[in-house]
Amino acid sequence: MKKKELPPGLHRDTLAVRAALEPSQYGENSEALFLTSGFIQPDSETMAHRFANPLEGYTYGRTSNPTVSSFEQRLAALEGTEAAIGASTGMGAILMLCMALLKSGDHVICSRSVFGSTLNLIGREFGKFGVESTFVSQTDVNEWKKAVKPNTKLLFAETPTNPLTDVCDIQALADLAHNAGALLVVDNCFCTPALQRPIEFGADLIIHSGTKHLDGQGRVMAGAICGTAKLVNEVFGPMVRTAGMTLAPFNAWVCLKGLETLGIRMEAQSRHSLELAKWLESHPSVARVYYPGLKSHGQHELAMKQQSGSGAAVVSFDVAGKTPEERRKNAFHVIDSTQVVSIATNLGDVKTIVTHPATTSHGRLTEEQRQAAGIGQGLIRIAVGLEHVEDVKADLSRGLDTL
């Protein structure tokens, strides 16, 4: 069945519901889930053509799938990029990025404040294959500038970062990358295109962990890269077909449907987050709160320029304590005293999640790496969901009020 062609200029909220492949001959209004590893071909000539030209038809699940294509099309529309490509996980997307664009002797500049697994993948794993890396301050553009070498190929940043919510100047880093003949990659997991479009500030490639807000209910693993059609089709596509970081159709379908409510979820969760951050900032047992929507945040004005809303749905804070051991004990007490929120490591769920970054997301880093990233033993991260915010406050009070 022929789908109506969407007119140009539609709002992101409309694209989140409508951008997808055409429906099948049955005319389904909700996008179909194609659970199949192979696709029947009408004849040998067509089969040969499609294997030689993978963009012109479906042949095998590792190469492409209609449900995955719909997810990719919708996410690209939301990010404002020409194309997108799915991956098995968010880290799978970063692996795809590095394998497709880097070779021995190339150099990457990366924020030292990014997710712990990203630090290890770029610095340790790709270091085995001769890829150089330099880790710099998230917020000091001069550090990035000083780190540029003739062989620099990528600049990689999250904004805001996990878990301290540091914000980088996307436009400044884009200008720096382009002047060096490199690409700027931005992990947009925290904000999603509902709150931030890095492409509008000059970023070349956008990374997503669909496991987080794109799904929105903590059900599946997924990842994606958004960028130009040339890079997606000619560079990343062949890498996926060869190496198999393939996004499963069911996971793609869950994220595809999750995108339909992304805007209203992010609006509500970021609003709850700002209220929670303000409350935490006034609590005597809290030493510091990290949230871009707060005026006390070091990059508040920049965040409000680059992001819409109050600044995403993750709030981190340090509990008070005289020594690292005491701060860790106090953090564990606050976390273990909760009765409503979930003690887990994910984020982007409608259920609020609390975690201790120093022993989870950043637990495999050395103490020196953690200190450089600002991850102390008293740090607690709250990924704010859709419960009533007063119930979340009360739950955290059980521990904070008894320190």
Describe the structure.
The protein has helices at 12-18, 44-52, 66-79, 90-101, 116-125, 141-147, 170-179, 192-195, 229-243, 249-259, 262-281, 300-306, 324-336, 367-373, 389-400; strands at 83-87, 107-111, 132-136, 152-158, 183-187, 205-209, 223-227, 286-290, 314-319, 342-343, 353-355, 379-383. It has two domains: 12-259, Aspartate Aminotransferase, domain 2 (3-Layer(aba) Sandwich); 264-400, Alpha-Beta Complex (Aspartate Aminotransferase, domain 1). The protein is built from 15 helices and twelve strands. The mean pLDDT is 95. α3 packs parallel to α10, α4 runs parallel beside α5 and α4 packs across α9. It is globular, with a radius of gyration of 22 Å. α5 (116-125) links the parallel β2 (107-111) and β3 (132-136). It is 39% helix and 14% strand. It has 403 residues and is an alpha/beta fold. The chain has a seven-stranded mixed sheet, with helices on both faces. It has a five-stranded mixed sheet with strand order 8-9-12-11-10.
Strand content: 5-15%
Text of the CATH class of the largest domain: Alpha Beta
Order of strands across the widest beta sheet? 1-7-6-5-4-2-3
Q: Helicity, in percent?
A: 25-40%
Q: Which topology of the largest domain does CATH recognise?
A: Aspartate Aminotransferase, domain 2
What is the straight-line distance between the termini?
63 Å
The low-confidence parts are none
Task: List SSEs in N-to-C order.
Answer: HHHEHEHEHEHEHEEHHHEHEHEEHEH
Class derived from helix and strand content = alpha/beta
